[in-house]
Amino acid sequence: MRPILVLILLATMLGVQQPATAVAEPVRVAEFLADCPYSHRLPDDPIVFPGLPGASHMHSFFGSRVTNAHTTLADLQNGATNCNPSVDKSSYWVPTLYNGNTPVEPVITSFYYLGEGVRDDIIARTQPYPPGLRVVAGNARATGPDSSTIARWSCLHAGHVGASKDFVTCPSGTMLESYLDFPQCWNGRDLDSPDHKSHMAYPVGGQCPATHPVPVPKLRQVLRYPVNGDPSRFRLASGGGSPCTATSSTPGPPPSWNAVSATASGRSSSAARTAVRNFPFRAGLT
After folding, report:
1. CA-to-CA distance for 135 and 126, rounded, in angstroms?
2. Among 39, 99, 97, 103, which residue's Cα sits nearest to residue 71?
């Protein structure tokens, strides 16, 4: 997928000598940003229903232009992408959003690979995503909003509305936006798992659990939809009539109150290593 390490800069004014005892706080920035516009829409899910076209609810796909039920890692690596930068050959997909019965696609689609969420010493050990890694984010077992912060809805340019697990009422002239954080701890062995989630985990107390000791960049998905107003009109293809109810890509689970998304890494190992070399951790004065 798209790995790389976050850039840590200790900034000082040029030409001004700093006291030897001065310690600047590190400033963390997105180590890698991919803008991957909407590509196509299909009732396919190559992670959960591989080789079974039409077996899933409707998904909106971003990045790779070739993703369907039959897609393989080689297809992603050799196929066209609309991501900027084009080195990101991954595929991203989410349940399609509907306004009534009309599908709505996001007009701003950003995928951030961040160096955050764990302690600094663990960030320093961050590894690139292995080619072919498959990751699903969201809680398919939730029966109502929970206290986690991995998913939320909010309004672009209307911070006073506040974020919520449910769709929110965005004022005229603004857009509905969704944020979703993917797990950033890998078990170091499996590119997928039977439930498509157990090979990955979220950090606990600033560190990766012993069962998932390999830290990878924290992927944050930000989608902005050109809709606002009464949220009772909105629904996700994966849910019923309730706002922000999304099922995971597995058959027959109860509703989830977290938006569910999936991604399949198409970045080659050489591209991943190059990214890590070009965006190393840096400490010192600049």
Report:
1. 17
2. 39
Q: Is the peptide bond before 85 cis (omega within 30 degrees of 0)?
A: yes
271: helix, strand or coil: helix
Measured CA to CA, the distance from residue 26 to residue 78 in angstroms comes to 38
In degrees, to the nearest 5, what angle opens at C-alpha 2 toward C-alphas 96 and 180?
40
Q: Given a cut of 70, is residue 185 above it in pLDDT?
A: yes
The Cα-based distances of 114 to 4, 9, 122, 268 in angstroms read 8, 14, 13, 19
Q: What is the number of other CB atoms lying within 10 angstroms of the CB of residue 279?
A: 18
Q: Residue 126 — very low, low, confident or very high, per pLDDT cuts 50/70/90?
A: very high
* Domains in the chain: boundaries: 7-278
Of 145, 148, 176, which is closest to residue 245 (Cα–Cα)? 145
- Residue 244's pLDDT is what? 33
Distance of CA 9 to the CA centre of its chain: 24
> What's the rounded Cα separation, in Å, for the pair 120 and 116?
8
What the block records as the tokens of 124 is 């320093």
Nearest CA among 106, 235, 96 for reference residue 166: 235
Phi, psi at 159, each rounded to 5°: -60, -25
Q: What is the dihedral of CA 223, 227, 231, 232, to 10 degrees?
A: -120
Instruction: Quote the mean pLDDT of the chain.
Output: 76
pTM for the full predicted model:
0.76
> Taking the CA atoms of the chain, what radius of gyration do you get in angstroms?
19
As a whole number of angstroms, the distance between CA 78 and CA 83 comes to 14
Residue range 132-144: average pLDDT? 68
Q: Are 179 and 218 in contact (CB under 8 A)?
A: no
Identify the three-state secondary structure at position 101: coil
For residue 14, pLDDT over 60 is answered with no
